[in-house]
Design brief:
Strand content: 5-15%
Structural class: mainly alpha
Shape: flat
């Protein structure tokens, strides 16, 4: 669902819950990668309100992945 939210062009805030196991999971690695690319804001539950307020006040447009543009580009080649 996170990828669909990112593709919508809206700001996406993901908050993490308490971990049951130690170490990083594949899911956490993926979230960290999306955060590095500025596709999502990753926060813990304590900072969720602040992240929402900052997101509403932000003037900078949300970063969009280039994947869908690449899909369109290759689709036009097929026509």
């Amino acid at each position: 669902m996170i990828s669909e939210a990112i593709a919508s062009g809206k700001r996406v805030i993901v908050f993490s819950l308490e971990k049951k196991k130690k170490g990083k999971s594949k899911f956490e690695n993926t979230l960290n990668h999306l955060k590095e690319k500025n596709f999502i804001t990753l926060v813990d539950g304590k900072n969720l309100r602040q992240a929402i307020e900052e997101s509403l006040d932000a003037e900078k447009p949300q970063t969009l992945p280039e994947d869908r543009f690449n899909v369109y580009k290759y689709m036009w080649r097929l026509l």
